[in-house]
């Protein structure tokens, strides 16, 4: 199999850059003092994993991603993003393997732009700051049915970040 490793590396790096849960882990140095080095290492081993694993399925890559995030970044993602990223990466890998540049470009065009990513990051940081202020003994009302009255403004990222006493970061979907 003759894979263009530079194209694979650029595609994988671009995909990781758009993965908000992973980027949040990097921003919060969930990998400890070596987070930047681990990020580079993760990109390398992820590309290698896709290249050497014949017939790799999205579920298998998801499990591999989950293990790396857990063991190397003290991160648990409960928002299904690991599967979505695994599926996306394998779709792109298929285009790269078959030298389908047009298919790859169409796939990459589905990723958020750098400007959109920067905006989400700013909103996420503001949201985290607000949550820290409100997080003391906040009770969550159980009757949220009233929100279904009509279109409303987007409320920012739909993820909740929880860091436990041991330093583990868990990112979950907001209810």
UniProtKB/TrEMBL annotation:
Assigned keywords, A-Z: rRNA processing
InterPro entries cross-referenced by the UniProt entry: Pre-rRNA_process_TSR2
Superkingdom of origin: Eukaryota
Annotated region described as Disordered, given as residue ranges: 119-175
GO BP, sorted A to Z: rRNA processing
Recorded coiled-coil stretches: none
TM annotation in the entry: none
Biased composition (Basic and acidic residues): 119-129
Classification via Pfam families: WGG
Regions of compositional bias (Acidic residues) in chain numbering: 130-151
General function of this protein: May be involved in 20S pre-rRNA processing.
Similarity comment: Belongs to the TSR2 family.
PANTHER family noted in UniProt: PRE-RRNA-PROCESSING PROTEIN TSR2 HOMOLOG
Protein's name according to its UniProt entry: Pre-rRNA-processing protein TSR2 homolog
Organism: Caenorhabditis latens
Organism lineage: Eukaryota, Metazoa, Ecdysozoa, Nematoda, Chromadorea
